[in-house]
Each structure stands twice: as structure tokens, then as C-alpha cells.
């Protein structure tokens, strides 16, 4: 069960960013920064890790101060996020009653 957790996604800020992207077609850097309430450098570091894993794609529009960076979940990212979310749910739900430890009862 624990092996189903993805260490790239599991970091709280990355998990939160993936949750946003799983529920939107795209999200801008500014939106994620404001929504997650984190610093530019912190968001940049986490989004770079997700991009390096192939979980998000990045597009940039414009140059300089007016540039906009936008993120989108990739197919691999959606699959990894869904698997991670399912593993978290299974972990939090605990074992089924029939699988409970009789020695602990």
C-alpha cells in the first residue's frame, strides 16, 4: 500500500499543485502562488520537480515582467496523481474489517 505513494507528488505543496491542476485545464504561476500561499522561488522549485518527472508541462507567453507561465497536467501526471490519490485513500481508510489483526483484538 505504501509503495503506491509517489514520492514526487507526496510533498504537500506538490500534492496541492497537482490537485489544482487535476481540476483545471491549466493554471498560471500567479494563481498557484496565490492559491497555495507560497513564495515564487518555492513554487518554482516544486513545479520544476513535477515537470522533470513528466507530470506537468509548462508554457510561457510573453517576455519580461509581463510574461505568463502556465502549467498543465500531462497524461502521465494525471495517471500518477490518480494512483497516488487512490493509494492515500486506501491508506487512510485502513485495512478492511476481515483483514484486521486478530491478535490485536
TrEMBL record:
It comes from the Bacteria. InterPro entries: WH-like_DNA-bd_sf, WH_DNA-bd_dom, WH_DNA-bd_sf. Coiled coil: none annotated. Residues 14-91 form the Winged helix DNA-binding domain. Gene3D superfamilies: Winged helix-like DNA-binding domain superfamily/Winged helix DNA-binding domain (1.10.10.10). This is Transcriptional regulator. The lineage of its organism: Bacteria, Bacillati, Actinomycetota, Actinomycetes, Propionibacteriales.
